[in-house]
Every structure is written in C-alpha cells, then in structure tokens.
Write a structure and sequence with these properties.
Elements (H helix, E strand, L loop, with lengths): L7 E4 L2 H12 L7 H23 L12 E6 L4 E6 L6 H9 L6 H6 L5 H5 L16 E9 L9 E5 L4 E6 L6 E8 L9 H12 L6 E4 L20 E3 L16 H12 L7 E7 L5 E7 L16 E5 L2 E7 L11 E6 L8 H6 L1 H23 L4 H14 L2 H4 L4 H7 L3 E2 L11 H6 L7 E6 L3 H5 L5 H6 L3 E4 L4 H7 L2 E2 L2 E5 L12 H13 L1 H10 L6 E4 L8 E4 L7 H9 L10 E4 L4 H8 L3 H18 L7 H17 L1
Parallel strand pairs: 2-8, 12-14, 16-17, 16-19, 20-22
Antiparallel strand pairs: 1-6, 2-3, 3-7, 4-5, 4-7, 5-6, 8-9, 10-11, 11-14, 12-13, 15-17, 18-19, 21-22
Helix pairs in contact: 2-6, 9-12, 21-22
C-alpha cells in the first residue's frame, strides 16, 4: 500500500517532550554516547530482519549482506547513519519516534537525580537511545522503509527536537533506515572522519555487523590521473565485525568485554564481573554472562522484559529469552548461542525443549559460581555493591530454586546484632562461626524496618546472654525464611514465634522460669479474661529484661510482615491472634498485679497490649481508643 503523500505535522507525547528537552539542555556531559546508541539501534534492526527472514526470505530483497554505514560531511556539518535492517512503516515511525510510553519514559523521568552525568547513564537503559541524537543535533531526519514493502512506501520523519515532528512519504529504493543529524555549531567534531572512527572503535568494535566508513582519500599527487571508477567512494569496515562471544577468551580484552556489555544491556556503567564459556559435548553452546553494577528501574516488576539474547548458530533469534535463567536471576545480562536448537525456535518451543532445561541448570550454576567467586575475593567491595543493588532479588532464590538452595544461602548477607549496623554484610557462615558452644539454632527477628528489628523487645534476653540474632527487615525476608529452614545443619528460629527454648539455658534458668510462671498465674489469668477478644493466649515470659510485654506469633501462624504484605496487596489473610507475653519482674506488671479497680486494670492491660503492638511495628485497630486510655491515665496521674 502506498504511503500517504501528504506531509503532516504531529505533536510529541508529553513525556517525549520532557525527554527531548532534557537531552538538548542537560545531558551533555558525554556527547559521543549518541553514536553508540544509534549504531546499537541499527544493529538491533538488522538482527530483527535476520530473524524475520528465516520465515520469509523475500524480505532480504536479494541483498543478504548486512551493513551499517556512517558518513560525515564537513561542509554540511552532518553525520548520517544508514542500515539495511528491518526498517519501519509510517505507523511504526509515529509509534516509535513520537510516542515512547512503552519505553518506560515516565519511569525514566521519575528516576532522574538532577546530576547530568548520572542521568545520562540512564538513557539506554530506558530504551530511549534514539533521542540521544538531539544532544548533538539541531535537526534530525529519519528516512526509512520496511523490508519487503514497495519503494514508494518510504517515509521521511523530521524534527528539531521541540514540541512536534513532521512526517511525509518519500520513496526509498533500499530497505532499512537512514538517520541524518544536522549538527549543532559546537558539535562540529562529529563531522570529522577520524573523530568518528575513534568513537566507533571505542564503543562499537564488538558489533557483529560491519560498520563502514569511506576510506580516507589518498594524499594528493599520488595519482592525479584517476578513472571515474577509481574516483568512486570506497568503504571499509571500521570495527572488528565479529561476534565477540565467538572469539577465544584469550583474544578478548577487558575493555572489549565491557563495551559489549554496554551494547547488550544499554547500560552506561561497566559490569561488576562476567563469565565467557564454551560448552562442548552432548550440548554445544557458548554463553557470555554479565552481572551489572546497578539495578534497572523496573527490577521489581516481575512482568518486565528479562533474559538473555538468544542466538542459534550465530543467528539472532530473540531478545529477552527468559527460559535460560530463573526469575531470581533476572538482573543477569548477556548472550547464549546454541548449536542444538533449530533456527525457527519460538518461545513456546523453548519451554518444552529438554536441551533448554539442561542449559538453564548449567547457566544458573555458572551465575551462582560467579557471585560466589566475587564474594570470596579479597576485595569485597564488588560483592557489597552487588548485594546493595540485587540482594533482595537474590533472596527470592530459596523459594524458587530448591536444587541450588545451599549455594544461594552462602551468598546471602544480613544485618545482625553482632555489629548492630544497618548494612547487610554478614554471611550465614560468619554467623555460624560465632555461635556459642551449646547454641543449636540460628536466631532471627523480622520487622518492618531495621530500627524496629534492632530495638525489638524479643532481643533482650539474647543480648543479655550474648547470643547473636539476624536482623531482617526487607519485604521479602519473611518469605525467604519460610523456605530456608536450615543452614550447615543448624535450624533457623524466629525469636518472635512460639515458645522460647534456649539450648544454652542452665537447669537453674529453667527452674527459675517455672517458678516465675507459677508466681504469675493470677496475673496471667486476669489479663487473659480482659484481653480474651484480642489475643489467643497470655503467658509469663523470661525473654524480656527491660520491656513489660511483647507479642509472639503462634508456631504455625503467618508472620506479621507477611500479613502486612498480603493486606497491602488486597489478598485474604488467615485469621489469627497473637500471644501476649508479660514480664512479671517489670514494675508495670507489679502495678497491674496489685491493681484492685477492674476498670483501671482493664485500661492498663489494653494500653500495654497496644504498646506491644506498636513496638512490633504494627498498626492499632483503634488508635483513638488507645489515645483516650492514655489521656485518662495521664490526667489521673497529674491529680495524684
């Protein structure tokens, strides 16, 4: 169908306007990034055509050699990038270049810090790399035609990067896309052949498609009598033009690995580490896996695009092949190239292919080994950085990957009472090495935030006895501990769940606890009657030294943190009531025990219960009732 010949002027989407303004006026600290982004987009367009042509060879239009051309014109002060990739239709041009909602632009804008250098690093990660062209250009033209469509369906898009763009029909004999940047006066350097060559070598040497530029002219006087044919412009590849993962590791430099990572991830920071591996035998495949330094903006969106770039026999098949790694490793970037899958493989076929399951198992172990090696390195800064960015995601592992539960457990890091520091830097191996002689459990407490965990009344007896406790406050922690029952033969024990039984207690300690329970039977009975509708049980406790009371979760009841998560998600929560444990040695408990006025006793009992709830980070069902009781008590005390 022939494109409409009418030239139209359309407005950018609101977020696109904001983004363009940002590109033009703020993100100028590293101008050369535009070239890397545009070349990367051209490479992706060629990969898409490679894949589409497997099903329809006619899309190649008799031209199966792929290339990206970069041409500079000093006189016109322009730079033009052309590819013979998949190209775009008129509607796709409008959707991709005028409306970028699906690229996560709103989230991009929300993530900006105001620091131009840091913000510029987010460009590619949010899929808005095309707009980086406006960092150096005052005007951008895009001439494109979809592969397999007639020449007269070509489309010309043009914009000055302001509120609007124009689009019109313009025939194009060859498939693909050509982008011409009319450079700003202060960006003339990008119309210089040698400057552009150096940028391409720096950022795009690893691109498997040849990036061509015109050969530099021969010095004058070498041969003044040139034929017309000899005078034609000759092009040469500027980049290595070999798929990096197919080269031997010994022939790839660290800088090349880093550059390739930035290509596949659209990240501007170097990765923390990587693993390049070739497997031969029953299965033959090559993998190149990277651990990023920074979490992407949509890490917690479990529906986000994730996974590895999949190639079969060096032919691009798909982006985001999520079948090769489990969800809890969704932050890993890289490529996998298989010789054992068919070229027409689909996502549905991948889910059923036994070879994929074997590769998934091996790749998962490789990633965990990479992390283990990083964690054991003498310089632990990289792993500390990794944990800060991705630790909460890795904590999903024990629930999703039973086969590698032990490996994952060794990689986990926690805050503990050993340091009382909020930073999560203590491993379970560290904890076990410090366990007391008779200690047979790994103790932990779960709370809404670190300070609530650190100040939990449940820790009082543990601090008194010098027993270390893990301080858990991530949203995923309750879920984690439900699936991580033991480590190194030691069972985990929630200090706020069930009856407290310390193996380190002496016979004298146990005798004292029994005596305490007997002496406080009357107080416990009175409290049970008054609070019957709000708690499942009241009992005396020896776990408290400074607090008057605390709440305990029943042995088989859902934890407070998990309850809050389910409630906030609108999920049904099983009915349960907490256990109130009272410290008979506390002055307030003594005051209760001697109180004769039943109304006054009831008010004090409810105040103590509400305070125990608040101490746990919980929310009161009736805050006004609590305030009323407290005010009445304060007025009474002021009259005394």
């Amino acid at each position: 169908m022939t494109a409409d010949v009418k030239k139209e002027t359309l407005g950018f989407q609101t977020e696109a306007k904001q983004l363009l303004h940002l590109m033009i006026h703020s993100l100028y600290s590293n101008k050369e990034i535009f070239l890397r982004e545009l070349i990367s987009n051209s490479s992706d367009a060629i990969d898409k055509l490679r894949f589409a042509s497997l099903a329809d060879e006619s899309l190649l239009e008799g031209q199966a050699d792929y290339e990206i051309r970069v041409e500079v014109d000093k006189k016109k002060n322009t730079i033009t990038l052309s590819d013979n990739g998949i190209g775009m239709t008129r509607d796709e041009v409008i959707e991709n270049l005028g409306t970028i909602a699906k690229s996560g632009t709103a989230s991009f804008l929300e993530s900006l810090t105001g620091d131009a250098r840091k913000d510029s690093q987010l460009i590619g990660q949010f899929g808005v790399g095309f707009y980086s062209g406006f960092i150096v250009a005052e005007r951008v033209e895009v001439h494109t035609r979809k592969a397999g469509e007639p020449a007269d369906t070509g489309v010309l898009w043009e914009s000055h990067g302001e509120a609007e763009f124009s689009i019109e029909a313009k025939p194009k004999e060859t498939r693909g896309t050509s982008i011409t940047l009319y450079l700003k006066k202060d960006c003339k350097e990008f119309a210089d052949d040698w400057r552009v060559r150096s940028v391409i070598k720096k950022y795009s040497d690893h691109i498997s498609v040849p990036v061509l530029m015109a050969k530099p002219p021969a010095p004058e006087g070498d041969d003044k009598k040139k034929s017309a044919k000899e005078a034609e412009v000759e092009f040469e590849a500027v980049n290595e033009a070999t798929a990096l993962w197919t080269r031997p590791r010994t022939e790839v430099s660290d800088d090349e690995y880093k550059a390739f990572y930035k290509h596949v991830s659209h990240d501007f920071e170097d990765p923390l580490t990587w693993s390049h591996n070739k497997v031969e035998g029953k299965l033959e495949y090559t993998s190149l896996l990277y651990i990023p330094a920074r979490a992407p903006f949509d890490l917690w969106n479990r529906d986000m695009s994730r996974g590895l770039k999949l190639y079969v026999q060096r032919t691009f098949i798909m982006d985001d092949a999520e079948q090769f790694l489990p969800m809890y490793l969704r932050f890993v970037k890289g490529v996998v190239d298989s010789n054992d899958l068919s070229l027409n493989v689909s996502r549905e076929i991948l889910q059923q292919d036994p070879a994929v399951e074997n590769m998934r198992s091996a790749l998962t172990k490789r990633v965990l080994d990479m992390l283990g090696k990083m964690a054991k390195a003498k310089k632990g800064d990289d792993y500390a950085s990794f944990w800060k960015q991705f630790g909460s995601v890795l904590k999903e592992g024990p629930a999703e990957d039973m086969a590698n539960k032990d490996k994952i457990a060794k990689l986990l890091r926690f805050s503990t009472t050993h340091t009382d520091a909020e930073v999560q830097d203590q491993s379970l191996e560290d904890y076990v090495s410090r366990m007391q002689e008779k200690q047979d459990k790994i103790y932990y407490v779960v709370a809404e935030n670190f300070n609530t965990a650190r100040k939990s009344p449940h820790l009082e007896v543990f601090r008194k006895k010098g027993i270390e406790v893990l301080l858990l406050s991530d949203r995923v922690d309750d879920w984690l501990m439900n699936h991580l029952q033991e480590f190194d033969g030691k069972q985990f024990q929630d200090v706020a769940r069930g009856a407290l039984d310390l193996a380190s207690d002496s016979e004298d300690d146990k005798a004292a606890q029994e005596a305490l329970a007997k002496e406080s039977e009357a107080l416990v009975e009175r409290l049970s009657k008054v609070l019957d509708a709000k708690v499942s049980e009241v009992r005396a406790t020896a776990r408290l030294t400074d607090s008057v009371a605390c709440l305990v979760v029943g042995e088989h009841d859902i934890g407070a943190q998990m309850r809050r998560i389910l409630e906030s998600a609108g999920q049904p929560v099983p009915e349960s009531r907490p256990i109130l444990e009272i410290n008979p040695a506390h002055p307030l408990a003594h005051l209760l025990d001697t109180e004769q006025d039943e109304d006054r006793f009831s008010n004090l009992a409810h105040i103590i219960l509400d305070q125990a709830t608040l101490t746990e980070g919980g929310h009161l069902e009736d805050p006004a009732d609590y305030v009323s009781r407290m005010n009445a008590l304060l007025v009474e005390l002021s009259k005394a």
